[in-house]
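Quick one - first record:
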Amino acid sequence: MPMTLFILGAYNGVMQTLYRAGVIHKAAVAGINYYQGLTMHGVINAIVLTTFFAVVFGHVTMSHYLKKEPPGWSYRISMVLMVIGTLIDAILMIMGKAQALYTFYAPLKNSPLFYLGTSLLIVGSWVAFFGWIKMYIDWKKEHPDGKMPIAVLGTFVNFTMWVISSIPVAYESLVLLMPWSAGWTEDINVPLTRMLFWMFGHPLVYFWLLPAYIAFYTILPKISGGKLYSGNAARLAFLLFLILSTPVGVHHQFSEPVMGQGTKLWVSILTYAVSIPSFMTAFTVGASLELAGRKRGARGLFDWMAKLPWFRSEYYLFGYFLCGLILFIFGGLSGIINASYSLNQMVHNTGWVPGHFHMTVAGPVLLVILGMSIYMYSTVSGKPVKFLTMVTLVPYVWMIGVALLSHGLMAGGLMGEPRRTNMGMSYTNPESNLFNSNWIPTATVTMFGGIVMGVAALIYFVSFFATALGKRTRQPVISLPESEELREEKPIPLLHNMKPWIIASIILVMLTYIPSLMNVFKYSTPVPNKFNAESPVNESGNNDKYSQPVTNERAK
């Protein structure tokens, strides 16, 4: 189901680039307006597809390593909640009743059912996690001296972080936004809702990434022909993500005056720190790949790279992982720029931001999702992958498209090109008074990148659904390529016990968000403004105190 919806998400992604490049000078095409399509693109790709994949990959990972099946109640309830929530949101977005983008920022207003559907999707993923905890407890009783496998640790870290960070957005959706959207309450505190969203929104990035990291550490060395260079380094990287990923969401709010300068400085430091486990991963995975190349006969300083199985269809997963890693190098470096308060002010709300996050979510995240989805479907269904040569080439075509798209967005952003804007009706429309010829070249590069990505996605869809419609030719299994560690390292107790890391994570969250909450309530008040999905006109009219001109007396 999420892969079917991804067709809609990918289509609207290509359409965004056509709007922005000025190929389309209208508000809507085929009954889908720009912001409706942008919402579908963001919600389906960044929330629906990624959450479903994390849960499915978690089921497969836990089952493979623990040799147990998840409790029936957990995966059945989880699937029902996630499917119902997703269908509610999909129907509302198609109907045009949800157009507040994937951030669903107030005072933009979606249908109240959209907030319910999103909450069901999130809660459904929690239920799957609770089932895995039961699995691990049972496994530990049977293996009291066994250490938690790295892939299981990565899964637990990811979903522990996910539960901690999604509680605020569930509260925002169910307690604040849904009653306000339904008309049961009149006022909404906009800075509060944004802060609650970003308590979830930035950890969401790592929720996307950590399944890919699990694959990089536990699958990539195996399919490359090598071994994992250091298991302790892998464990430390995952645990560092647990404590550092959740408190950094405030850097998305550097431009909001309700956030104090001390908080912004603190969050800048944490944001720089969260790059440490990524650098560790780059080293450990790079060393594992070099080992694989040398085992394949490489002798020189760099020729091990040429020995890796780049275009060999029997190792098609390799291309998805490596192309994702290459893109993530640039996604990570551009993300560090966003951590700087002064540089953030220059690129905030420009094309730089989606250029950066497309190299992360459309880089390692989506490529691992695509590669592992067709692999897992093939093994669990007993159906061979169709058009294997095409599947092998998809990640390389996709990587070229993402590189073009992100370069165009980021280069345009450095020249002030705005994000979230239908530029085809203004800045890239020669007939508009707002026409800006400086943004035509960068928007055109973005469009070409989007088209190349669309072609890669189309090739993938043909293969995926041909595989799904094919005949079973072998016994279905739940199995993953499993990398061995290069050497038996001395066990470090702190790397095998999540409890102190969870405590440290909660402490860092409190140190960041208690001052943030105090500032929000000190410097902001609820307002009655609402903006409909059908029209961005302020519903509150001109008769309330928030809409009146500021007189000298009121200013005092």
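second record:
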Amino acid sequence: MTSTVPNAVQHADERQPPITMFGPDFPYAYDDFLAHPAGLGQIPATGHGTEVAVIGGGLSGIVAAYELMKMGLKPVVYEADQIGGRLRTVGFDGCDPSLTAEMGAMRFPPSSTALQHYIDLVGLETRPFPNPLAEATPSTVVDLKGESHYATTVDDLPQVYRDVMHAWNACLEEGADFSDMNRAMRERDVPRIREIWSKLVEKLDNQTFYGFLCDSESFKSFRHREIFGQVGFGTGGWDTDFPNSILEILRVVYTEADDHHRGIVGGSQQLPLRLWDREPQKIVHWPYGTSLASLHVNGEPRPAVTRLHRTAGNGITVTDANGDIRTYQAAIFTAQSWMLLSKIACDDSLFPIDHWTAIERTHYMESSKLFVPVDRPFWLDKDEETGRDVMSMTLTDRMTRGTYLLDDGPDKPAVICLSYTWCDDSLKWLPLSANERMEVMLKSLGEIYPKVDIRKHVIGNPVTVSWENEPYFMGAFKANLPGHYRYQRRLFTHFMQDRLPADKRGVFLAGDDISWTAGWAEGAVQTALNAVWGVMHQLGGTTDPTNPGPGDVYDDIAPVELPED
């Protein structure tokens, strides 16, 4: 059991391989594509060494650049801030360097199988992440309306929580064919996946998450909906997602994206950084020992892009913050979409007008975190009166919302994520400094744990982030509102550029907000691979017949197309 309100169906056979985040919108097996010995494709020898702009050095950009380099192309990476994007790992000033905080992505499901390919490739280790009631979590406290409940499994919670769990299970079965879809995805039964999903997209595109709950006989109780919103399933409360499209939530539960999470030992930012320095064993055109770093002056990406425009011959001309101007046959844009509306001067001719509309309608969610370093995992101490852990992973309706306890052994310094919040809960923190935030958080937690002096264990200054206030992000991750399916489809399918006028080709969109699984690193990887296929195709390259790429099979598994009129 990994959550207070788990997914509807427990696996009948846990020995089965994990489901993958390859659908249901575009059920393509990216993990098989990556694992195939034939590789991702090849470019004609006459195209070797061709420069391709990659704008954005987050995970999507670095994966795309790495794979383009292996094909014999020369990726030119532009990055406004630092390699990693929202895979951002920071330390604490004056503390042991092993103490780190994950300001962005910090937990990854086994269903992220394409992501796992790269984690394994660069030799990173993962370990279970201490989500609410996960096996790796010693204990969890749920604190709602001033009443706290201590639990090691869901059975330790009051009956009402189990009632909510059963209501969610029934809601998914009644309204979303959960068992049938889960089975089809686990078996990679593409026709059945498409059959189920096509009906649901047509039926539910205009429905909010909250409306979906209200329409269910199982969730007629407001109290149950309230508890579900505050406690949720998998990673905690989901009421901040209530206004979003229910299709967004179904993608998460179908692909088991909120289950069995693992964290990357030493921090997630190591993944793009190691790919940047990695020297592939199999590489075309470039000498052995070539890396992305070695293809860039002083091993650093080029600076921020300030202008994108089209020039004669359908060239893509890029101006950077140093005033350098370069023109490319192809470019991959992986930064957050709103950058095209604000930070970068763009020609309207870069994209068809319908794609510009989709970019403008992108809905980003806010998110804030604050971490503090502590001298040891004191939360494992036992209360003399109750025998319980003195502090636990905490879900609450107080300002902190979610508190996570992260340690590397009983005798080593540790880290507390005092608060992890989204949307309105995140905006409440925005005007406050890191220390002001910490004071409010310690007050809230002191009301839950009156016998615990957290402050006396703090050994360094807090670190914090509000992604909506980050100038190159302006939000944490995308989450579609009702009616946004058509916009998302336009963005995801943009890599199929044979369908576009010749003067609208050459710039390829990628990144997790272009994917169907926005907010998940897997989506960043998948769209990077789509863009790599698109660039390869544009430059006259092909995949091996035994390993067709996402564009080769597109017509067989294209996302459902809803009418525009």
